[in-house]
Here is the input.
Amino acid sequence: MRFYTEQHQYYCGIDLHARSMYVCIRDQAGSKLVHRPIRCQREAFLRLISPYREGLVVGCECLFCWYWVADLCLEEDIPFVLGHALYMKAIHGGKSKNDRIDSDKITHLLRGGNFPYAYVYPREMRSTRDLLRRRLFFARKRGELMAHIQNTNTQYNLEPFEKRLDRLANRDELLEHFADDENVQMSIAADMALLDRYEETIVELELFLAHQAKVHDASTFYLLRSIPGIGKILSMTLLYEIHQIARFPGVGDFLSYARLVRGSWESDGKRKRGGGAGKIGNVHLKWAFSEAAALFLRLNPIGQAYFKRLERKHGKGKAMSVLAAKLGRAAFFMLRRRQPFDLKRFVAA
Here is the structure.
């Protein structure tokens, strides 16, 4: 957890929503200067803060609608701080809670140096990152449709499919497999129609995203692909979710952000596992490194021998987690030093 500790003449806390925002401004001494709701409009916000523009810092909680505020502050050369939603416990406590109280608490946190901040992802690559996440959403929906077809086949105790359903040519005679019941056939036909459309969309998105990755940072895109098991999709995921490796002070910070290490609680000399603390971080990086760990072992005799040593020591489940964390560590230093992956060095360490 990192706190914003810079000193300013004025502090602006915003409780932000989709259509409205509650704004509170205090000076360095703590006197309240502004505290009222306005519409989420650029002109209205700039008009409200105009008397305090010199020496003002703006802070709001990290929710889905912060993009426009961050972009506006960047354009107007106003310091902007994004509050980490999971760490801002102070605005969620108390007997009473509303937008007015929350905006005031955000201002107090900002002024007191207790404002836990998150990374403000630059807009140049932000929309591409969101598009990549949308592609993952579609891919998972496609997987759900395939699972439903397989489950329906099992439900009616029919013969197992002879070929993989993820191949388009293998689905030509799929409806005939369910010929005994027209209702089941209709259900499978609906799944197939959606499946075909999802695949068409996913292929289209992947071509566009690969082009964008080469435009934004081709060297990093290909550098990450030097890791065995990391292909086009995982490389793009790492590229856009990490953005700049320099934003992480050390490898431990990166592994924590990628959910590759456990959290821990300690009190009175007693330690326990951190409950939900392990869920704090970037779920997309966690997924990418977990997938990379599984794919790393394919057609990789050296990697498989290394994994067997881990498995004997830790068991299969923990060994996969250890391998994922080690791949994360390797990716960090590769990006920091701009060096390709070295398999012999990886398994020797």
In short: The first strand starts at residue 3 and ends at 4. The mean pLDDT is 94. The chain has three domains: 3-120, 124-217, 232-267+277-348. DSSP finds eleven helices and nine strands in the chain.
